[in-house]
Amino acid sequence: MEEAVMKPTKKGGGRLCCICNLRRAALKRPKTLEQICRECFYEVFEEEIHQVIVDNQLFKPGERIAIGASGGKDSTVLACVLAELNRRHNYGLDLFLLSVDEGITGYRDDSLETVKRNEVQYGLPLKIVSYKDLYGWTMDEIVKMIGLKNNCTFCGVFRRQALDRGASLLKVDKVATGHNADDIAETVLLNILRGDIARLSRCTSIVTGEDGPIPRCKPFKYTYEKEIVMYAYFKRLDYFSTECIYSPNAYRGFAREFIKDLERIRPRAILDIIKSGEDFRISTSTKMPEQGTCERCGYISSQKWCKACVLLEGLNRGLPKMGIGRSSRGLNNDPKKDKDMKQSNGTKSIENKQCGSLDF
Amino acid sequence: MQLTLEFGGGLELLCESVKIHKVNVDPPNGTEKFIMKDLLTWVRTNLIKERPEMFMKGDSVRPGVLVLVNDCDWELSGQLDTTLEDKDVVVFISTLHGG
């Protein structure tokens, strides 16, 4: 990791770092508006994440932890920082990289090359699970069959399960994902707009799925995207930044843009939205979906069959629309349940969502 | 004056997938200084080949695009009013692509 060569400059008035008062400031922190130098930035960035890990007891000594690794900026920085903190603070963790190969030529194959380099750079063993192996279909094949409508629904449902299956193959205790503060603020906003009470109540949790097969945690819950990208840039980390070829323009839509506009006016707004999400209290009389298991594959499901099995059955029978939208086509068509569903704000049906509606 | 411009985080896709551009620019007629605002106009006209809305919003960069002048956050040097000088290095990085 070669550091960028710094050219002596007169810009920014050569203002000094407000932490060390020795070196020239290199960035303005969105969280605090402090102007700090590169070295102090590395220090506060890493130690704040350490503090989040300690305060929330995200890991226990001896645990096996998989880092959900896409090759993108967030997971690359997460792998780098967790490997470093594990050494520095003796967490005693066995860390692994876990990647999902959706089978998208020209996109995932390239980003997986990045993850393979990360395996060497950070000395973390890598496991790749593919849609082809798990489901018998690649995304390329699915798109060939169903076209460019609803494809992100298939991909999202399959990815969520694929990560869990990979995690259980690795026999890990927990999966750490790279969701950052901006992502979480965006999701809070989306869930409010959609009236999705079930997701709103869990999307700000730093640990989720403790009742499911493998819990997930978000060490970057309070970490700004700007700082993640600055860290990756200053440290010259190797990451991949191409959009998925099947969802061009899906830059997470209007909520994302709105969050970025807010950040420009008042960077604290991101943390404030997360706080608002945390402080929401769901009325105890609100009926929440019950958690069961899929009769077909045993995965967690609030219906007879899990979403992945419904979608897969549709693909295999040549009826790919099965399981898409709120309609009553499909295999979970039980009139009693349908009625229940309406009472519980319809949170069980998965409508087609643009990709980038993050998996929480 | 000569500048080195670098596009990253996916923004290079807007300029024919070329990440580093060595360019020659001159202050607009009747002025002596060349500032970031002038550079953005110049980049939009001369380098961005597609989807300019991914790079700019109004007369500034689109929120979520980071800018560094000689490896220093442009928020420390006055953003659009930052004066550029010969041999400066300006980096644009999008934070908007997946993680």
Secondary structure topology:
The complex is a heterodimer of chains A (360) and B (99).
Chain A lengths: L26 E2 L6 E2 L1 H18 L8 E5 L4 H16 L5 E8 L6 H15 L3 E5 H5 L3 H8 L4 H19 L4 E3 L4 H14 L2 H6 L4 E2 L7 E2 L7 H10 L18 H13 L3 H11 L12 E2 L6 E2 L5 H10 L18 H9 L17
Parallel strand pairs in A: 3-4, 3-6, 4-5, 6-8
Antiparallel strand pairs in A: 1-2, 7-8, 9-10
Chain B lengths: L1 E7 L11 E5 L9 E2 H11 L9 E2 L2 E2 L3 E5 L2 E2 L9 E2 L4 E6 L5
Parallel strand pairs in B: 1-9
Antiparallel strand pairs in B: 1-2, 3-8, 4-5, 6-7, 6-9
Can you walk me through this structure?
Chain B: It is found in: Cytoplasm. Chain B: Pathway: tRNA modification; 5-methoxycarbonylmethyl-2-thiouridine-tRNA biosynthesis. Chain B: Keywords: Cytoplasm, Isopeptide bond, tRNA processing, Ubl conjugation pathway. Chain B: Belongs to the URM1 family. Chain B: This is Ubiquitin-related modifier 1 homolog. Chain A: Its main location: cytoplasm. The complex is a heterodimer of chains A (about 350) and B (about 100). In chain A, about 45% of the residues lie in helices and about 10% in strands. Chain A folds into 2 domains: about 50-240 and about 250-280, 3-Layer(aba) Sandwich (Rossmann fold); about 290-325, no CATH class. Residues about 1-10 and about 335-350 of chain A have low confidence and may be disordered. The radius of gyration of chain A is 21 Å and the shape is globular. The longest helix of chain A is centred in the middle third of the chain and has 19 residues, at about 150-170. In chain A, the strands form 3 sheets. In chain A, strands 5-4-3-6-8-7 form a 6-stranded mixed β-sheet. Chain A has a two-stranded antiparallel sheet with strand order 1-2. By secondary structure, chain A is α/β, with parallel strands linked by helices. Chain A has 13 helices and 10 strands. In chain A, helix 7 (about 180-195) packs across helix 11 (about 270-280). Chain B has about 100 residues and is mostly beta strands. Chain B has one domain (about 1-95): Ubiquitin-like (UB roll) (Roll), CATH 3.10.20. Chain B is about 10% helix and about 35% strand. Chain B has a 5-stranded mixed β-sheet, with no helix packed on it. The longest helix of chain B has 11 residues, at about 35-45. The radius of gyration of chain B is 13 Å and the shape is globular. The interface of A and B includes residues 11, 26, 73, 230 and 257 of A.
